[in-house]
Specification:
Helix content is about 30%, strand content about 25%. The chain is of the alpha+beta class.
Length: about 350
């Protein structure tokens, strides 16, 4: 009898333990708390442990259970990873010196967006263009900086996204600000991770409104002050909102009643200038200012805190010299003076000196 009771008692204990373990397993698999713990454990090392997944003043946090499908080291201080079912692409790197030893094409990533980028506000050095958010956070006491690039983040298809932007007063959709806040928070976290003493900006509350094509007389951003009166054909501009923290600036000028091609002027700073210069060909890389036979012009300037010179480029459409209405005659007079004015104004906004311009 005693032996039988002991066996039953042992069986009961085993049953209780099994049920307890099963309950613990179910809790671990199904509860929100356990999901958050698993997520935090994964994020401690995913993408080098530099992603800002936590909730804080700069960012509301990534949601637990987010897919983490790919993680690639681009170097000892550079990481690439994908986040979420939509495969948001994130690149985080510490850029040192003049960037010659780092693959800027992979780290800074290109963009196919047709939207002109706007500068981030709140004291951040960065831009957003509806497809990619870029942030640079300078390390104090030198030219090193943390670079964060977040792209391909929209979960909408192209037509739905275009419709959503059209209906938005600012031109932005919810994911734009969400991932911009994530990028700034990640820059701050990565700077601490790499012992880069940096001063973070304020929490982003909004992005500057995207401006569509407007009349030349309404230019008040990076196209402001260009000598439009030199050519009566010019009628429209599309421009970057002015901001001292912009990484890139653009101005496009059109003559819609005469030809479809546009004058294009751009400015790039820091590592983005280095990448742009390398993409421009050997002549652009070796010379600080010049003109080529394909309608291209370029200039450069020395800007505070940047290891490389800022790079300014311009493009003059071939049609500007040939397309006139019947009975009209003229020649191209706008391109070079406008480019020089664009570069001078941009350099001044960013506190740049030693501006080298192509000869008139």
């Amino acid at each position: 009898m005693v032996r039988t009771a002991a066996v039953r008692w042992a069986g009961w204990i085993v049953g209780v333990l099994v049920l307890g373990l099963l309950a613990a397993w179910v809790w671990w698999r199904e509860s929100d708390t356990a999901a958050r713990w698993r997520f935090e454990e994964a994020m401690a090392t995913y993408c080098g442990g530099v992603l800002a997944y936590e909730k804080g003043p700069l960012f509301e946090g990534l949601w637990p259970g987010l897919e983490l499908p790919n993680d690639v080291a681009l170097g000892p201080e550079a990481q690439f990873c994908l986040v979420g079912e939509g495969r948001t692409a994130v690149t985080v790197a510490l850029l040192r010196g003049d960037y010659r030893d780092q693959d800027l094409e992979r780290i800074l990533r290109g963009s196919d967006s047709t939207l002109i980028p706007v500068p981030l506000t709140g004291g951040w050095r960065g831009t957003a263009n509806g497809e990619v958010v870029r942030v640079l956070l300078p390390c104090q006491g030198g030219t090193d900086l943390v670079s964060v690039t977040v792209g391909s983040y929209s979960s909408l298809n192209a037509s739905d996204e275009e419709e959503a932007r059209r209906k938005s007063e600012s031109g932005w959709i919810g994911s734009d600000l969400y991932w911009a806040r994530f990028a700034t928070a990640t820059a701050a976290k990565a700077s601490a991770h790499w012992d880069c003493k940096a001063e973070a900006g304020k929490p982003l509350r909004a992005l500057p409104a995207i401006t569509g094509p407007e009349q030349t007389s309404e230019a008040d951003g990076t196209c402001a002050g260009l000598p439009f009166a030199r050519d009566h054909r010019l009628d429209t501009v599309q421009e970057t909102v002015v901001g001292a923290g912009a990484l890139t600036e653009m101005c496009e000028v059109g003559a819609s009643e005469y030809f479809n091609a546009r004058y294009e002027f751009s400015a790039s700073f820091g590592p983005y200038a280095a990448r742009q210069r390398n993409q421009g060909g050997q002549s652009n890389h070796d010379r600080e200012a010049g003109v080529n036979k394909y309608g291209g012009v370029w200039a450069s300037a020395r800007c505070p805190g940047d290891a490389v010179r800022a790079h300014f480029t311009g493009f003059v459409p071939a049609e500007a010299a040939t397309v006139w209405r019947p009975g009209e005659k003229g020649k191209e007079t706008f391109g070079l003076p406008a480019f020089r004015e664009f570069a001078e104004r941009s350099a001044k906004r960013h506190g740049c000196t030693d501006l080298r311009l192509p000869a008139q």
